[in-house]
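Standup notes
- DV: blocked on the single-chain target, sequence here:
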Amino acid sequence: MKKRTIILVLLLTCLIAPSFAQSKAKFGHLDYGAIIKLIPGVDTAQTVLEAFQKDLQTEGEQMAAEFKKKNAEYEALASNPSTAPAILKIKKDDLEKQYKKIEDFSNFMQEEIQKKQLELLKPFQDALLKAIEKVAKEGNFTYIFDTSTLINYEKGEDIGPKVKEDLGIKP
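- DV (later): unblocked, structure below
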């Protein structure tokens, strides 16, 4: 009895499985990076982001130059045998504080750039994702892939033109 049940289950599985496999998934692809660059306003946002990053970078470079100058002064004092150890200790502590300040600023700078990038580019990313979802739904696509992460995508459908059209980007 158990053998018959097992054989029956295996037979049904073999008959039903191919029908599930025949309902093929539909694949689409697009170049996300290329399309987002074409959205009106992205270039302006990118310019603002680059200017913001440059301002922060300039401030960081000024801090580094000041540190370099103080370090040279410390090295000169350290090479002079008549310099009191207490003065060297104070200068060394000052250098360590300034180095920590530069490290903190570097971390702050990275966080601020990420926040600014999100603030400036998120609306464009959201619009692109909405257009992709719309085209995917209308075309009954199971998966949409970004071509920058694929090696071979010749069998899928390029939905880039449809997404561009939905975003109002002219070819």
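- Follow-up: The first strand starts at residue 27 and ends at 30.
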